[in-house]
Each structure stands twice: as structure tokens, then as C-alpha cells.
Amino acid sequence: MKGLDELLIALVDEAITLDRRTKEDKKRLDEIKAQLTAQATTVMDNRNLKYYQIFGHTGRFNVSFKEKFEIDRYSVLKAILGDLAEGKISKKEDVKYDAEPKFKAALIALFREDYSQAISISTVLEKLGLEKAAIKAVAKKLKGDYISDKKLLESVGAQGDLEEELDAIRQYKNWEAVNRFFAGLSDEQLTEIKRAIFVEDGIAVGLDYEK
After folding, report:
1. Are 8 and 33 in contact (CB under 8 A)?
2. Rounded to an integer, what distance in angstroms lies between the CA atom of residue 147 and that of residue 153?
3. Residues 76, 188, 177: CA angle, nearest 5 degrees
4. Mean pLDDT throughout 99-112?
5. Is 130:156 a contact under the CB 8 Å cutoff?
6. How far is CA 143 from CA 28, 149, 167, 192, 208, in A?
7. N or C: which end of the chain has fewer CB within 10 A?
8. Is the pLDDT at 211 greater than 80, yes or no?
9. CA–CA separation, 179 vs 109, rounded Å?
């Protein structure tokens, strides 16, 4: 029994040591993330970016603005959009509405007026030095998502931070979505749609590295 008691004592002591270390490590990790987030959001605000990455030697720290989306007046959307609203929006049991991802993204872009066709995707890709054949192939794969689009551009030889190019791509893809769902609506109808939903900004952060 003495041997067992000593083993249990040792395990308790080791568990306490690990627990203390975990709490200390978490505290330090939270401090580091806060510093990185503060630096990233400053750059994002100054350059009007939605995504930003800070690179280390072994990985990167990703920061993005995320929107909290709510539908406040479904009846308004249904009255204006008809079958489109019924097909793209579902009612949950807790009396909340959830829209299909692409339709939600279009509503958020409309609400924030975060879309533009001023710079086309082909123009962005041309400025990056891609040939016509590559531009056509790459343009079909771009989604308006910072991480996946950056990996795609890097795979065809684009270099640099690419933040401004990726933001232009995102805004153009947003314009395509808004145009797809809401083309032909009057300014008054678009205003009513924006009044029927609510979007609140938040921050999402994460570390990206090989496990």
C-alpha cells in the first residue's frame, strides 16, 4: 500500500504542476493574442480590410471581422422578395430565422454596402501578372474568402501580402451576390430590406500552423 500511496501522491503533485503550467500558459497565450489582435485591427482599420495575417517562422496569426446576422422583420423580406425569401430563409423553433450561407452573405454585404464592381477580378489578376488563360481558370475558383483565395493566388505565383487585392476580390464577389439576388429592386425596396435585418461586427482570431 505504501508504494501505491507514493504513486498517488506523485500523480497528484504532477497534476497540480501541469494545471498551474496550463493556466500560466493560457494566460500568456491570451496576452499574446490580445497584442496581435490590437496590432492587426489597427492595420485593418487604417486600410479598410476585413482580413489580416501576421506571420511567424512556423505559422501565422489570422484576424478577421465577423458579422452577427439577424433577421428582425421577415415579413418585409417576404413581401419584397417573395419566393426567394421563402426558399432561402428558414424559421427556427425559437422564433429566429436563418438564411442560406450565400443569401446571408449577400444580405450582409447589402446591409453594410460592402460591395463594388469598380475593380473587376480579371483586372486584379492582370495586375498580379497572370496570363489570360490562367486568369480565366483562377477567376472561376475565387470565392471571396481571404484564406482560400490567398492560397489559390499563391499557388499560381502571386507574391506579397495581397491584402488589398484580396479585398478587391471579396468586394467584387459581394457585388456579384448582391446583383444575383437583388437586381431590379428599387432603392426604396433595398432600404426596406436593410431595415429588416441587423448586422453586428465581431472579431475572429486563430493560429494557423502545421500540427
Report:
1. no
2. 10
3. 75
4. 92
5. yes
6. 35, 7, 12, 28, 20
7. C
8. no
9. 11
Cell numbers that stand for 145 in this block:
474568402
pLDDT at 1 over 70: no
Contacts of 16 (CB under 8 A, 6+ apart): none
Give the tens place of pLDDT for each residue, 29-87: 989 999 999 999 999 888 888 888 898 999 989 998 888 888 888 899 999 999 999 89
Q: Which alpha helices (H) appear in the chain, and where do they start and end? A: 2-47, 74-81, 83-88, 101-112, 121-127, 132-141, 146-155, 163-182, 187-195
Residue 183 DSSP one-character state: T
Cα–Cα distance for residue pair 137/160, rounded to 1 Å: 21
The three cell numbers of residue 109 are 454585404
Residue 25's pLDDT is: 92
**What pTM did the predictor assign?**
0.69
